[in-house]
Amino acid sequence: MEIQFLGGAREVGRSAILVDDALLLDYGMLTGEPPQYPVGRPEPDAVVVSHGHLDHVGQVPALLRGDRRPSIHWTPPTAELARVLARDTLKLRGYECTFTESHVQRLGEVEQRHGYGEPFTVAAGGTEYEITFHNAGHIPGSAHVFVTDGDTRLLYTGDFHTDDTRLLSGSTARPDADAVICESTYSDVTHEDRARVEERFVETVRTTRYEGGTALIPAFAIGRTQEVLTVLEDTEIRPYLDGMGQRVTDIVRRYPEYVRDPEALRRAKSGARYVTGHDGQRERIAADNEAIVTTSGMLSGGPVMRYLPMLRSDPTNRVCLTGYQVEGTNGRQLLEHGRCELDGGVVPVAARVELFDFSAHADRDGLRSFLDDYRGATVLVNHGDRCPTFAEELRADGYDAAAPSVGERVTV
Predict the structure, then answer these.
(1) Residue 398 pLDDT > 80, yes or no?
(2) Among positive and negative, which fits the CA dihedral 295, 64, 80, 4?
(3) How crowded is residue 234: how many other Cβ atoms within 10 Å of its Cβ?
């Protein structure tokens, strides 16, 4: 089995892995100015998608240009989330986008949806592959992708989490494999105990409101928003919900089998107050000592950029960041320097800023415990800022490990 890394190798973003020049695992994009896409121009016979985040699924509609019609395989939540992300990308990038609405609509012509633990067969490049999705515990519908051609067994982890959270059960499936392509996002980090994170988060939101401030909670629309809402559901706090997280929450609610506690999510959605943005609603909410959950999680757009100018000057207010802030983003600048870009200029923010580690990725211990089951396999490390270092650490511990570069081919 020959594997080529078209993106996501020694980096986070634009994940794309081509198997035998015919079967494509993920096809994402790295947002930025300009955005970055996978290298080359693959023309696969089939595409298998691990989960519905932009860096893994953002370029899939572009594979349907011209007369190309590869089959596309994903879980039901991923299928719906991919469409939400595609249409949001179209709205943001307009004519610069690499696909059109017609390509998004073509997804319905070629897609096949599969549940966890349900093997299916895909023909690509003259080879029949048996593929199985296993719960990856990252976001609703996220999957480890197990691929076998009858001779070689490949496990592509996608993004995964080994611990249970309010929203999801952690990854537990460990199918036998000859080679593992493993993410490494937090290979040098130990996450804070989740119960403690939740306790600090709730107390911060409560204290902010008690002191007469507003808690602005930027959250990724997919996964993180639903996690935060479920944490707040356990309290007296009824947050406002604004932005893409509304649509995503509605989608996730339609697939109860892909969350840990569907009833808790139902209560969380019922307790959240949806924002329409009409008739000065956001201005009233910002001035009313409330908790506001909104996109985007790294302050790169969305309604959060409407609220921040109204809240930034008052130190009684808080900005509660709920996830990692990538270097170079507005959120990272706010966290490290107390300022961010608003209305075309960089301005100071007096509102207090706190970061809460609601990560949906396995940390160092989670990665190592996962890989304990694959000591006899070839481990190919990807999706991280320190892939070569992590691969070296694994080799020192007796693994056959490597960190391929973008464009590199590896035979397993």
Answers:
(1) yes
(2) negative
(3) 13
Query: Cα angle vertex 90, ends 8, 97, to 5°?
Result: 60
| Residues in CB range of 40: below 8 A, 6 or more apart | 6, 18, 407
Q: CA-CA distance, 375 to 369, in Å (whole number)?
A: 11
pLDDT digits (tens, 9 = 90+) for 313-327: 999 999 999 988 887
The confidence band for 30, taking pLDDT boundaries of 50, 70 and 90, is confident
Q: What is the pLDDT of residues 165-204, one digit of tens each?
A: 999 999 999 999 999 999 999 999 999 999 999 999 999 9
Tell me which residue has tokens 């970055």.
36
